[in-house]
Specification:
About 30% of the residues lie in helices and about 30% in strands. It is built from three helices and four strands, in the order βαββααβ.
Length: about 110
Amino acid sequence: MLGHYVYFSLHDCSPNAADTLIASAQTLLSNHEGIAFFAVGKRTPDLNRDVNDQHFDVALQIVFRSRTAHDVYQDSPKHHKFIDENKVNWKQIRVFDVDISNEPTANNNAD
């Protein structure tokens, strides 16, 4: 499995601009073959401890079932359309790709 995490800092970081990016990601990026987990959302501003990174506006998290699924996603027309339609508002993006050793699990005992 491969985790693909993208953190977007926006030129226009208004709630409306963040919502537009989120909606575009949900439409164009969420339904690719080989995705085990997909999530996108705004930074939580009240979680602001010293260890919390405050230098992004929207985060995208995708876990792919395989490296091959990730590679196909990277070259897909929908992924390229997402980039083309949204990059004008990106001040900075940071991408973190991580090999994950097992299936994601939900902790049903967490609050």
